[in-house]
């Protein structure tokens, strides 16, 4: 995940939406998310080791299920922050035509 500068409250509030600069993740949230992703990365390494060591398939699948759940929860955290920050800010600036279709698309993809 790429680190992104947070937009500050300044005269730049009237600038058009710039998706590459937008992030509603506070530093504390970023660190928590990075820690969570590090744990997920460790889970994936553990699954690879289980496969190499020919562990019981059900045990491997159980770990895969846990990892998928952890990744989904991390994604939900980012999605919630996106809605609370980026989407809300864009709507306040009158840019809902840009962000609402994008939000609908990502929610649909996330639910698959």
TrEMBL record:
GO molecular function, a single term? metal ion binding
The family database entries (CDD domains) matched by this protein are listed as: CsoR-like_DUF156
Q: Which Pfam families has this protein been placed in?
A: Trns_repr_metal (PF02583)
Q: Which UniProt keywords apply?
A: DNA-binding
| Compositional bias segments (type: Acidic residues) | 1-12
Keyword NADP assigned: no
| One GO process term, biological-process aspect | negative regulation of DNA-templated transcription
Q: Region entry Disordered: which residue ranges?
A: 1-27
Q: Which PANTHER family does the record cross-reference, listed alphabetically? A: TRANSCRIPTIONAL REPRESSOR FRMR-RELATED
Q: What is this protein called?
A: DNA-binding transcriptional regulator, FrmR family
